[in-house]
Amino acid sequence: MSKDSVRQLANALSVALALAVNILASTLPLNGQNTGEISDRFQVYFVPAGYVFAIWGVIYIGWIAFAIYQYRSAQKESPRLRKLGFTFAVSGIFNAAWLFCWHYNLFGLSVLVMLALLGLLIVSYLNLNVGKTPVSSAEKWSLDIPFSVYLGWITVATVANVTDYLYFIDWNGLGIAPQVWAVIMLVVASILALAMTITRLDSGYVFVLVWSFIGIANKQAAETLVANSAWVAAFFVFALAVYSIIQRRRAKSL
Q1: Helices 224-253 and 178-200, packing angle to 10 deg
Q2: What is the pLDDT averaged over residues 157-168?
Q3: Is 70 helix (H, G, I), strand (E, B) or coil?
């Protein structure tokens, strides 16, 4: 079996593994605990409303689209996919591992696994050169957008995971109120969205942050500072996403 064939198989198996564990985490559920129920134990403010987690359905579809697309004969020797290598395949293992850590209350380890997952997705994103490589519509919807959306959500999830762990260990926040820390995280995430807009015009990544910020605003409606800041961040990031789309369309028309 050639290296290209091994890579294709590894990606497909990784998707199958991650999908299976994610489904089992909800249906069994793992360790008798629902993922969302565990999250609700942490009284933190950088957490969106429950409906926001429906984005996993979009991510799953993206995984499947990618797994099928990369198996096309025309893509077997694709330079982009060869450069991607096995980083996505390994990320699926870490995705599944995080669920076991979370459901078995290994919150410190879950942070390390999540950071590793984020790192793998960043490497995958950079190796694919998303946003800077001309692609067909099929490649855009099967490769670029799935990776953008997935990276966007794991960016948000990493911040939330770290915040949950700090709450778990009773971190005092350096004397800064938790609500203020939530606002700081919203500002940091907004800066990331600005950076992705300037460097990549990646509306897929940015729209995930819009979705998340609106969810935070709704979830934390009783906390005026957090809710209002989340709404401001959502409108700002939405403007960045629209700008990215307009600039890309202008570039195509030239």
Answers
A1: 0
A2: 95
A3: coil
